[in-house]
Design brief:
By secondary structure, this protein is an alpha/beta fold. The chain has 8 helices and 7 strands, in the order αααβββαβαβαβαβα.
Length: 264
């Protein structure tokens, strides 16, 4: 066997191993994403993040299952674009989580706004409980702060989110007189806008504000708070359960891009 034949054989073996590794990676990622989405939808309502996780899982699974027949037919530029998009979303999601995990509050603020999230009937979601538990910890360090719970009533909610949030905080030992309910907001922009109206009425002097939300949401929430008029709002991020991380980050990426484009 001459050098050229050995070289050709080595290239074929390398390509074969490369295909095998690629197929295994895509199958593994596809299975994990699909299982992650299934776990998330089991404990939460379907949303764009969970749907996106299912879609990504389906794409990875399809490419893994039909690696030798489907993938070669996909234009190279489209494959590169897809992988670049996945890489960008992955690194941007890591940035959101790291940014939101950093401690920004001073525990000397006059008020703290707890951003609402969807509930089932009157039952709080796991993510919303984490935000409220974080509010309890904040109150223990700053018991003079006014706590604004913000969130209106959604289509499948029997009470306003803020009412369910207030009841939870009271059950955890927070005095009712320390809590202010904001019951009209349907999104983060309205959370801050309506909360600002209530706080402007309550304080007859300049006041400082902190806000509590999930860690992946702190970056966008801080930008929205500034757009509403809270120039120096300090963010405080609560932890997100493992099964909700990928769907939540996918949804938040969409939310950040929407804010950059539309401003809300």
């Amino acid at each position: 066997m001459d050098k050229k034949q050995k070289s050709d054989r080595s290239k074929k073996l390398f390509l074969r191993k490369k295909r095998a590794v690629g197929k295994t990676v895509f199958l593994t990622v596809g299975v994990l994403l699909t299982l992650n989405a299934a776990a998330a939808v089991f404990v939460s309502k379907m949303n764009i993040g969970i749907a996106g996780t299912f879609l990504l899982g389906a794409i990875f699974l399809s490419c893994g299952l039909f690696w030798n027949t489907l993938v070669p037919k996909i234009p190279k530029w489209l494959r590169i674009l897809f992988l670049a998009g996945v890489a960008f979303v992955t690194f941007f999601s890591l940035f959101l989580l790291i940014y939101g995990a950093s401690e920004q509050v001073h525990y000397r603020e006059d008020a703290v706004i707890v951003l609402g999230s969807s509930i089932k009937g009157e039952e709080l979601s796991v993510g919303l409980k984490e935000r409220l538990n974080r509010a309890v910890l904040y109150y223990q360090k700053n018991p003079t702060a006014v706590i604004v719970v913000s969130g209106g009533q959604g289509p499948r909610e029997t009470v306003a989110e803020s009412l369910a949030m207030e009841q939870y905080l009271i059950s955890r030992g927070i005095p009712r007189e320390q809590i202010v309910r904001e019951e009209k907001a349907d999104n983060t922009y309205e959370n801050f806008a309506y909360a600002k109206q209530l706080l402007d009425e309550r304080f007859d002097r300049p006041y400082s504000v902190a806000f509590i939300t999930s860690e992946y949401h702190v970056f966008r929430a801080e930008s929205i708070a500034k757009a509403v008029g809270f120039d120096e709002a300090s963010g405080c991020g609560s932890r997100t359960k493992w099964y909700a991380l990928i769907p939540s980050c996918l949804r938040e990426c969409v939310g950040v891009f929407r804010f950059w484009i539309l401003g809300y």
